[in-house]
Amino acid sequence: MSKLTPVLSANWDEADSFTITGYKRNGGYTAVAKALAMPADEVIQLIKDSGLRGRGGAGFPTGNKWGFIPQGDNKEHYFVVNADESEPGTCKDTPLMMANPHVLIEGIIIGSYAIRANYAFIYIRGEVAHVVRRVQQAIEDAYATGLLGKNILGKGFDLELVLHVGAGAYICGEETALLDSLEGFRGQPRLRPPFPAIAGLYAKPTVVNNVESVASVPAIVNNGVPWFTAMGTEKSKGFTLYSLSGHVNNPGQFEAPLGITLRQLLDIAGGVRNGHKLKFWTPGGSSTPIFTDAHLDVPLDYEGVAAAGSMLGTKALQIFDETTCIVRAVLRWTEFYKHESCGKCTPCREGTWWLVQVLKDLEAGKGTEADLDKLLDLCDNIMGRSFCALADGAASPIISSLKYFRQEYLDHLAAGQCPFDPMAATLFSPVGAK
Amino acid sequence: MSIQELSTDQEKAVEMITCVIDGFEITVPKGTLVIRAAEKLGIQIPRFCDHPLLEPAGACRQCLVDIEINGRAFPKPQASCTIPVENGMIVKTQLTSAVADKAQKGVMELLLINHPLDCPVCDKGGECPLQNQAMSTGRSESRFEGIKRTFEKPVAISSQVLLDRERCVLCARCTRFSEQIAGDPFITLNERGALQQVGIYEDEPFDSYYSGNTVQICPVGALTGTSYRFRARPFDLVSTNSACEHCASGCDMRTDVRRGKTLRRLAGDDADVNEEWNCDKGRWAFKYEVAKNRLTAPMIRDSSGQLQEVSWPEALAAAAAGLRDAKAGVLVGGRATIEDAYGYSKFARVALGTNNIDFRSRVHSDEELDFLASAPLTATYKDIDKADHVVLINFEPEDESPIVFLRIYKQTHKRSIKVTTIAPFASRGSEKLKATVIKTAAGNEISAISSLNGLTKKTVVLVGERLSETPGALSSVLQLINQSGAKLGWVPRRAGERGAIAAGAAGNLLPGNRLVSDSAARVDIATVWSSSSLPTDIGMNTSEIINSDLQAVLIGAVDPMDIAPDAKIKLSKKFIVSLEIRHSDITDIASVVLPVAAVVEKSGSFMDWQGNVRKFEAAVAQSLNRSDVRILSMLADEIGKPINLATVKAARAEFD
Fold first, then answer.
1. Which of A180, A353, A378 should one mutate to test binding to chain B, selecting the residue with the greatest count of B CBs within 10 A?
2. In this predicted model, what pLDDT tens digit does every residue of A373-401 receive, in sequence order?
3. Please, what is the Cα angle at A152 between A147 and A154, to 5 degrees?
């Protein structure tokens, strides 16, 4: 279990891995031929049997999601890929699309075929202009070789693939907000029901999948279910990209079977930066409750992390050592949520506005212990009360930081200021903690 | 919904659902939202974005309640405005669930942190859902010690509507109304997070005929009307149910008066007519009541041609002298209430001994009177709700009868019913209705009408008053109705026309939709009127009255330019008695002017295009002005041929 399992990242070291030539040379676009020769429902069943779970954070079984699309309904179906990777700490989809956009395209063709969609969309965040160019080129190349467009591989399956560029909103990573944005409206989440599988894009049955989920499909088709289920744990099958960032010696993407622990990953990643100790980390991006050094051996799959009180999310492991002020980190994250809040619902819109102000004061050492309880009470009124999960993501770091580091907040208040040296926490500073 | 209605329409039986709310069992139709079901039990769950006539949004999160279905409780409280009831559902509101109560209080607290302390200067104070719900669900002292977000205020989003962005709670009722009900997406929510705000595209202000409704449904003082801003507190106002006098849609209104002045008119609640909406004209065009050129006293034109104020006895004597025994005619105009029109009708026959009376101050024809006397005008708003197809003939609902437009738009928005319009071009309203336009130049309507096919018994055909301009067109509509069995509605522009028909204010009609030519009818009416007999000749129509050599004409609310460019000159050669509210083209040429009451100053009733009657009492109590019918009664007394309709009540009673 301590071995890495490069599947998605297998050929990222090759200079032309992102070209169609490089992809085909490494066996690319063979899965699509296999899949198109199978009945579509068998493709769905294959993905169901593999136990692939959505890699966008929620971990919903991908095959089940595909199976929700009503078939024989005489309606257009749509296949949408959520490439709006914006969760703080998450950086797996972007390098994947940079290094190998074609595996995504191949997965899209197979997925669209399975759910009987003739239109597919990639919604990519607008800030990553270089990735947009790569993906756009890859799509053009796929069209040029008859892998997209009419009668793909002569199998009678038509598919148009559109790359849509977002305009800079984290909320558009929420699937229904993404659909609204794709339709040309402001990105705000929609009321569910109806669910996208029944009425999604343009009110038609739609599947929305994360980049990595879709990119995993060709390998499963090529190598089969037993190969995939041999990796991972009982309920969390397969391999995935763990993103390690922050105070580690070798930050990057580490492709491993689900269930690996942080201790094992840190081992592979060269450990926490020299001379420092792990203080706290996020298992799945800033929206998930934090863990501490007490959680180094928690198996990083959906069940293990949930049992330990957090969420696996996007497997964005942000590592912070003892030079980091937790209050400052939480404040930065809360500022992010406040900035990104779409404004539709009261708890998130007003709550994040207030939380930032309270945390700013606390970080500056202003306030009393009663303010910590006020902060927790605010979070209690925000968590689970909002329209979508953004507010939950905003409240989680605050609640969990108070759970594990209440004393640090109190130290700020006692000192009348932040007792940490922010320079020490930066990656370019050689100075240790005060 | 009566049992009779159900069986005759062969409606599907509505499935009923039983659930428990706060320990009380309730059975409601399937599809009822939890928040509505709770209201039926008298349990008021606080809310902002929810509105019974708008699609659920679930945005404000104020209405959170705990819900359990089949033993499984939802892990977090749910927005009761988005969840329809299900069998076996157990709901616990703030009354029985501590979690729901805390959640609601939490949301209320959060709503108030950025809300400005504007109550003392905010129009909504005193009738504000935020104030009220802050009292029931809010804290007495704020815990917020930070900085509120501020905006420049107010911003004029149209000349009539002002926006205070700081007060806005982002419930999106206004934007949802504009999009879902009016079809006018002029306002949208812009920006993100706490800076989110309602906005317009600066080059396209909020020019919707229905913009005033957003002011009414705004749950805070974010949207205010310029005509009412800073003018009054609701507890100073005396409210009266009224009917709107501006068109034939028949809206229920609420008129708010303070110390004898009308300050505000809001849309009333009538699910069968205007639901809870009205148009901007009905809402804001009431200032004429206190216009500077309002007539305050009777006037007589003196020898030098100037109008002089005189006493009532003098004016009535002068008017009677000019009308008594003269060859006379009566132009009622479209403003009259049913009681007033009845007064004009009786006055013409009893006091003037003539059938020369016509209520139409617009394009008209004799064919139209025959049509109105005999056509089965039975279509109603409810028929539009159930129609498979709506056909508009020379009728632009958005301009001519805005509430009819809303009713049709509701169906096109809900279930895409078919709309066909015979018109010279596609108006904005037709485009909003996605109507098929049968492009017809004026005058060519008959061939367009005969080209219509596929009409069924559920089709509603709505004909505008302009169709009278084309000879033969109204008859061909009748043919169409006979052949297809479709429902027919005739929609005039003015509020008083349908009532005037019922009151017999036309040359060929007697009150009660009876014909002058029907001798039995003449005898019946004469008996009621204690008159020996009624004139038998069919009376002249409006143009004939104007162009004729009649010596005298009694004129109600008429603008001569609506009839013909030379109408004023022709009328000026006659002895004119004018019953008017303000100085007008007619008072310019009148020999005697008698001031009458505006709608808010009198009681009466209007009949809408359906034939539905809406009664109203005077909103401005004890106004010195009197309704037309009372003036006519005094005049008739003076002439020596009394009509005995000294009060509006008497008129109503006799007419009924």
1. A353
2. 999 999 999 999 999 999 999 999 999 99
3. 130
